[in-house]
Amino acid sequence: MAKKTVAFFGASTGVGLSALKNYLAAGHKCIALCRDPSKLTAALAHENTPNLEIIKGNAHDVAAVSRCLKVSETNLVDEIVFTIGGAFIASKMTIDDPHVCEKGIATVLEAIAGLRRQGVDGRPHIIVCSTTGISRFGRDTPLVIVPMYKVLLKVPGADKAAMENKLVASSEDFTIVRASGLVDGETDKTIRVGIEDPVKGVESKAIGYTISREDAGKWIARNLLIEGNPKYMNKTVTITY
Predict the structure, then answer these.
(1) Residues 117 and 62: beta-carbon distance below 8 Å
(2) Which tens digits make up the pLDDT trace of 134-155?
(3) DSSP codes joined into one string, 131-143
(4) Which of 61, 20, 60, 22 is closest to 41 using CA atoms?
(5) Which segments of 118-201 does DSSP mark as H helices, in order?
(6) How many angstroms separate the CA atoms of 174 and 85, rounded?
(7) What's the rounded Cα separation, in Å, for the pair 34 and 29?
(8) For residue 82, which of 38, 73, 128, 238 is within the disulfide window of CB 3.0 to 4.6 Å?
(9) Are 70 and 119 a contacting pair, CB within 8 Å?
C-alpha cells in the first residue's frame, strides 16, 4: 500500500485524535494543525510518532491551514481529516463559537483554491466529522432523542449542517461522517453504517444512540484513509453502534 500524507484539523482530542493515532500506526505521514501543540504531544506521549509534523496555528487562519495542506511546493496532501468543533455550553444550549465548523471548512476550501492558484497540484479527499439529527431526508436518530437534537443541540447541529452544505457545494471530493451521540472508550462493538447521497437521499439506514470517539476515529482511519473504500466517496455516512 502506497504511503499517504494526511492533514488533520482538530486532532488534539476525540475523534480526530483517534483517527490520527490509527493512521500513524499504519505508517503514514500526518500533518496536524494545533492551537496548542503541547496538548497533542501530551496525548501522544507514549506513542512513537516519527511521521507526525505538528504546526501551530488556528484552523480559521488561511495561511496556517495552507501550510498544513502542502506535501511539497508542487503537491497537496492526499487526504484531509476535519474534526474541529466548539465547546458546548449546556446552560445556554449553544457552543462557544456557533459557526466554528462552517468557518473552518470555508477556510480549508479557500486555502486549497489559493494553493492551486499558486501552482500547487492535487485533489485531496476531505473527510469531515458531523452529527446525526440533521438529515434532510428523514429521521436518522431514535425517536425518543429527537427533541434533544431539535432543542438542546440545535446550535451545534446548525453549524454542522452549514459545514456540510459548503463542502457538498464545492467541487472537492469528500466524505461526511455523521457520528451518533459521542461517548468515551474504545470497544470491540460492531459499528453499523448508513449511507446517504447528498442529492438522491438515503441509500441505507443505521439508527442508533451512541458511538465512542475512539471507535469513530478508528473507523474513519480504517475505512476512509487506510482502505479507502470507494462506496463512501462523495457520500454522507452515519456510524453508530
Answers:
(1) no
(2) 999 999 999 999 999 999 999 9
(3) ESS--TTS--S-G
(4) 20
(5) 146-147, 154-169
(6) 18
(7) 16
(8) 128
(9) no
- Tracing cell 504511503 back to the chain, one arrives at 3
Q: Longest Cα pair distance anywhere in the chain, in angstroms?
A: 52
Q: What is the DSSP letter of 92?
A: G
Q: What is the pLDDT of residue 1?
A: 63
DSSP summary character for residue 209: S
Cα distances (angstroms) measured from residue 64 to each of 12, 16, 99, 119, 186: 16, 18, 19, 18, 32
Is residue 239 exposed (0-12), middle (13-18) or buried (19+ Cβ within 10 Å)? buried
SS3 162: helix
Q: Describe the crossing of helices 100-117 and 154-169 by its angle, rounded to 10 degrees.
A: 20
DSSP, collapsed to helix, strand or coil, labels residue 5 as strand
Please report where in the chains the cell 473507523 appears, as a residue: 219
Q: In the numeric block, which cell numbers belong to residue 144?
A: 425518543
Q: Residue 188 class from Cβ within 10 Å (0-12 exposed, 13-18 middle, 19+ buried)? A: exposed
Separation CA 204–CA 35 (nearest Å)? 38
How far apart (Å, rounded) are the C-alpha atoms in residues 103 and 174? 17
Please give the pLDDT value at position 47. Answer: 82
Q: Cβ(68)–Cβ(11) under 8 Å?
A: no
